[in-house]
Amino acid sequence: MYAEQLSLRLRIQTISRPRLRCTYATTPYSTPAPHASRITEADVDGARSYCSNLVQKFDSPSHVLQTFVPPQARDAYLSIRALNIELARIPDLVSNQRVGALRMQFWRDNITRTFADTPPKEPVAILLHNALTSLKSRHPGISTNVMKGWFMKVINTREQYIDNRPYTNMEALETYAENTYSTLMYLTLAALPLNSMATDHVASHIGKAVGITAVLRGLPLIAFPPPPNHHNNNSAFGGGRQGAVVLPLDVMAEAGVKEEEVFRQGAEAPGLKDAIFTIATRANDHLITAKEMLKNLQQGKDAGHDFEHEGEEGHEYAEQSSTSRSQVDDIERGFGVLMPAVPTRLWLEKLEKHDFDIFRPELRARDWRLPWKSYWAYSRRTL
User: Fold this and answer.
1) Rounded CA separation 109/105 (Å)
2) Which of 76, 104, 147, 326 is the most exposed place for a label (fewest CB within 10 A)?
3) What's residue 226's pLDDT?
């Protein structure tokens, strides 16, 4: 009886309650909302603060480097880097792969709604929408479809490795780095906007170096994850949960590395330092290539080799953009976006100094030299 009375009251309240227009989009995440969220300046300021704090906490080098990104693209930069952190943390925050897949879909839907001009009231989406609105106001008629495709590529690639599976070979690791960290740089260049084969080509090599290095830096925490609910980059190793050794299988086989021996012996596992050396060398090779290309382009010369991704979606270029003068100008305009090469180089140098012992605590510490090393590199346009 009481249940019937309660049900009746609920029905009456539902019928008599006036319909209020929502101040933000409330349709399901898989469907663009019928009207744009009412984003206020306070919302944008709050989103900017959130993204900046997130980057500072979990990706301090990117936080330092934001000062070299042109002001008109800085909101885009922060939202792009914040999204990368949100995606990277999913495997550590969810209880199983299915929940992780739902979170990935959440971000796909957020990106879809943001590019449909109906962003949800979520900090990353708000700041990205503000950046896209600014871009369109500065360049009427510009298309952002390529940027949306690149965001989806990053999310899809992150989801592919959400279970911390090892890379089948070095080429698979390079593809992962290209589809994540290189693509993050393409997105920032597009926010300037700058559509240039010269800068994209250099960014591709730098992104591959950054991505490969990120996998090395993350290896200790993935092999020895901290206890549940302790998601701190400085947590001690050995939290009791079983981890994984996410190195290319061909490199592990060649060096004689066995996962169970890494779990038992850590840095002293047979062949591990050799495997780390091989992978770090590939990352450094990409940095050297980018540095040589940059020098050639700045002198008005040819880059030295063809861009392997030319002709792919987002990498179609006008004929006139490949002239020597325009390449020099493009590199100058986009140089701030190429700066992730600096912390990557510093970390690889530190790794070499510690004899490729990936578990050394010094490798997890922030590099106090980064601000002035970055300023030095930027002021001289060198990497």
Assistant:
1) 6
2) 326
3) 76
User: Tokens representing 118?
Assistant: 């109906």
At the topology level, CATH places domain 164-307+321-383 in: Farnesyl Diphosphate Synthase (1.10.600)
Residue in this structure with the two tokens 């601000």, named with its chain if needed: 371
Cα Rg, the chain, nearest whole Å: 23
Q: What is the pLDDT of residues 82-103, one digit of tens each?
A: 999 999 999 888 878 889 999 9
Question: Hunting for tokens 């209020």 — which residue is that?
Answer: 20
292, 304 in Cβ contact below 8 A? yes
The pair of three-digit structure tokens given for residue 86, joined into one six-digit string: 């949100």
290 near 304, Cβ under 8 Å? no
How far is the C-alpha of 47 from the C-alpha of 122, rounded, in Å? 8
Q: Is the pLDDT of residue 72 over 80?
A: yes
Domain ranges of the chain: 40-163, 164-307+321-383
Per-residue pLDDT tens over the stretch 347-356? 999 999 999 9
Convert the pLDDT of each residue in 156-171 to its tens digit.
999 999 999 999 999 9
Spell out the alpha helix ranges (H) of the chain. Answer: 2-16, 41-58, 60-65, 74-93, 97-115, 123-138, 145-160, 170-177, 183-190, 197-223, 249-255, 259-265, 272-298, 324-334, 341-353, 370-380
Separation in Å, CA 60 to CA 86, 218, 332, 370 = 15, 15, 25, 10
Cα–Cα dist 283/373, whole Å: 20
User: What's the rounded mean pLDDT across residues 18-46?
Assistant: 56
For residues 58 and 32, the model is more confident at: 58
Taken in order 60, 62, 68, 70, the sign of the CA dihedral is negative
Which position has the token pair 């939290």?
A: 239
The pTM for the full model equals 0.87
